[in-house]
Design goal:
This protein is mainly α. It is built from 19 helices and no strands. The chain starts with a helix and ends in a 7-residue tail after the last helix. The relative contact order is 0.15.
């Protein structure tokens, strides 16, 4: 039964052979990743390091670690450049080991101001390593999984990972409720699971890897890599540029929520366990239930059409979070967390696979690098803005700090509206089908792009 769920009909032989290894790898690494999710890290910092530094710096640390999964992605273009012209699976495996090592180092952070700095830096470095994993994994999945079932297969891997990430974060929250120093031994156990996953991944192959490496090496000689090529792509591919701009506005709201939400939940008296459940574990637990639904929709449509529908689930969810904070309705937080899981299920697929609807194969890692790097930029800025707004309202308008969550809701609403405009443009272009006159022509004519 498990094999039938994992391997639907008409799967090519290589994908059929690789999927069990992929499932085991990402499931084990999900246990590691669960302890360095933004919501989990934020609650650990708030609970374990309270009293070691001034409240202002403690809250800034909460903002940094809760945004770390996003802003660590600023390294994505660098990883993309470093891996260009090199074997993807071997490079990806080294990044898995780096991530595991950083999680292990995070566990050793003492309760001291320098210990807080240690905890924040190593947790961020763990996420930096994972940013490279995500960037390269998308390229491997593109090679091994056909377009018509790519979202389905990736979704099943993501569903299994989400369940284990949720369980890992849930267990960490429960233990932190009883012992603020539980991370000292929970993190090493999580790192051990990740190490086993990295060992399994050594046997994963990639279809057409040698040919892809040769094309990438030729591309390096012709155009270079890194920021210059990223800028060239954004300048020449207008549809992708518009998509990235809209994702930046929309994603800014999503990435602003967690840090001030943790502070609001703490101020309103919810336990550490409840905070971790609402901000991380419960949404992750919901993801597997809805990934198959979103995967079918994404397999059947372009990413712009997908986002134009899916984005409104985030809008509704953030409205519930803002209303719950404003009215002090604890039950609504839990309902919003379920809604967040539903939205995350679709967002996870769109974020990992959406760029393939624009990118030719030899530029897939670079397109993903652009996407992930821009995610990192907003992940660096937005949690700090959210916490700073919370602190300002608390200082200058006491009792109004709970209104902080209306700002991320507004950004999400604006982004969803922009996606509707992109959908209109896309459908209009499909009808008129103008002749491309830029580098976009190469992308549109590539059958592997899924456009």
């Amino acid at each position: 039964m498990l094999r039938d769920w994992l391997l639907p009909a008409r799967i090519p032989p290589l994908a059929r052979a690789q999927m069990p290894r992929e499932l085991l790898t990402w499931s084990l690494l999900a246990i590691t990743l669960g302890v360095v999710e933004g919501g989990v890290l934020g609650v650990i910092v708030k609970k374990a390091f309270a009293g070691t530094v001034e409240e202002f710096w403690l809250h800034q640390a909460v903002a940094l670690v809760s945004g770390a999964p996003a802003f660590a992605n600023l390294s994505s273009l660098w990883w993309s450049g470093k891996s260009h012209g090199k074997g993807k699976t071997a490079f990806l495996n080294r990044l898995q080991w780096f991530t595991v090592a950083m999680v292990l180092l995070t566990a050793a952070a003492p309760l001291h101001p320098l210990g807080l700095l240690w905890f924040v830096c190593t947790a961020i470095l763990a996420r930096v390593g994972w940013a490279g994993v995500i960037t390269l994994r998308a390229t491997v999945w593109r090679a091994n999984f056909p377009r018509e079932v790519r979202a389905t297969l990736a979704g099943r891997l993501a569903a299994a990972s989400a369940m284990l990430m949720s369980g890992s974060g849930m267990l960490t929250g429960w233990l932190m409720n009883r012992d603020p120093l539980a991370y000292h031994w929970v993190f090493p156990l999580a790192a051990l699971a990740g190490a086993l996953g990295a060992l399994v991944y050594r046997k994963v192959g990639m279809r057409g890897q040698r040919a892809l490496v040769k094309r990438e090496q030729a591309l390096v000689d012709a155009t270079g890599v890194g920021l210059a090529q990223a800028w060239r792509i954004l300048r020449q591919d207008r549809p992708f540029r518009n998509y990235m701009f809209t994702m930046f506005v929309f994603g800014s709201g999503n990435l602003m929520v967690t840090a001030p939400l943790i502070l609001i939940l703490n101020e309103q008296g919810l336990s550490s366990f409840a905070q971790m459940m609402i901000t991380s574990s419960l949404p992750l637990a919901v993801i597997p239930l809805f990934v198959p639904i979103w995967a079918k929709r994404l397999d059947a449509s372009h990413i712009i059409l997908f986002r134009a529908f899916h984005s409104w689930f985030f809008v509704a969810t953030h409205f519930c979070f803002a209303l719950a904070a404003w009215q002090h309705w604890p039950v609504l937080y839990w309902l919003a967390a379920v809604g967040l899981g539903i939205a995350y299920a679709g967002g996870l697929l769109g974020w990992n696979l959406g760029h393939h609807d624009f990118a030719p194969p030899e530029l897939a890692a670079q397109y993903m690098g652009i996407h992930v790097t821009l995610t990192g930029l907003r992940g660096l800025i937005m949690p700090v803005i959210g916490v700073s707004l919370y602190e300002w309202l608390k200082a200058h308008h006491p009792g109004m700090q709970d209104a902080t969550l209306w700002l991320p809701w507004t950004l999400c609403l604006t982004g969803a509206t922009l996606f509707m405009l992109l959908k209109k443009q896309y459908l209009s272009a499909q009808v008129t089908r103008p002749r491309p006159n830029s580098a976009t022509a190469q992308i549109r004519n590539d059958p592997g792009s899924g456009s």
